[in-house]
Amino acid sequence: MTKNQRNRPRITVVLGLVLLGAALVAVVAVTQPATVTAIVHLTSNKVIDAWLVPNSHPLVNSWLYNRAVEIIQNDPDIDAALGFKPSTDQIRLMDGENKATKCTGARLCAGATFFVDSGTVWVLVDLHDEKIEKIWWADKSHDVVSPQDNPIAEHVPQDCNTTLHLTRDGWNLDYRTTLADALEVTSVTFDVGGTPQPVATRLKLAEWHAHYPGDWGYRDFVGCCDPSAMSCGGGFPINPYGNTQIRTMYDHRNNPVGFEVVQDFRMSQWGLRSNYRYEQHFEFYMDGRWRVKAGTYGKGCGSTGQLDKPTYRPVMMMDVAVNGDNNDTFALWNGTQWVDQATEARWLQSGPYTPEGYRYRITDQSGVGYYVEPGQGQFDDYGTGDNAYMYLTQHRASESDGDLPLLPGGSCCNSNYQQGPHTYSNGEAASNQNITLWYVPASAPSLCYESQFDLDNDLDINIVDVLIDASHWGCALGDACYQP
Questions:
Q1: Cα-based angle 403, 405, 408 (whole degrees, multiple of 5)
Q2: CATH fold of the domain at 164-478
């Protein structure tokens, strides 16, 4: 055991204040990929609850971040590959993975990307063994501007993690930009006959997976935490860019149809390679429909060729509450009828769809509910289809409430169902229950000419979304209602 390993802090405060007077604490097992998570009451110094999550790791705290920087700066192979010793400002770490190494999602690893004259250099640090796990090279775009040439510090927002209330167009909801789970909307209701009806308890986006060809990539989380402070316990956040926007939505005839809650997230040097920008939308329509949408604008770390573009997968969480949290049932359309699902399960998006484009349905014992329409490129917003996994789980506070650490069992670089929420779907009862849905689309970006946003006119746009149709609550302009 090295001196650094002996002095390594064993506890990482993953998130700051998640409950009144309580903190969520993660203890990482250095000798195995596992995390012990505990809720600690700060006044009494007592553990309220604790659970073991195998094959997972918490966010990297500031001590480990600085340790990874130190390992990179003192490795002679990296100096030889780059031709210089990188400064601290030139090292921008992310949660990195590579399927050909030990760093496959369960271990604490950090990745960095460097652009030099001879190409792109990728570096992966294993923080369990405290060593460089892998160095590899790739071609560099001919017109790339290196972020190392003029590094810009990440902007840490000063006014964030504040809950705001919104009442509009029959909707009532709270929203905030969280520490680690992007933009979150909670306590959503819609007025029916002047009475607020529960719609959803919590909607958010837990993390992004950027999967590059060759089975390597990054797992990103977006939020407003300061990784050098105790507000989120570390990690590699992509911070919000500006305040949350409330925008009016219009149809093709320029008539208002509702509003959307929008938050932009950007790295400080977005527009250059390996600098990401994500955007999140929650759309609420006057007729009771609502829609969860996310988009990425790149740029990835590949060259301008389409073959080395990443596939992006946002992990969206929907804690639905049809007429309240309890007694909800999820159904699948089989081509002729709706089939209720008795237990937790998952599905890869495919037909059959109803004539309206619905694939799933959520109903309460009272008979009210929603139809769910996955994205197939029909929403006229650059989306080309989601190819999404839908996970049905019984609600557990430890799995979806509060600001979440990196999801257990997940990876940036799995192309199958193993995206994180699969660990929560294990055959428990899901009929007539308090249920949570996880929606994980997968889509490669399209190339668009948008010079006003992009330094070399190569803007990676990827939009994924799911529309929730609550038409049973009443129809605008006399449209037909679909009563489940």
A1: 130
A2: Beta-galactosidase; Chain A, domain 5 (2.70.98)
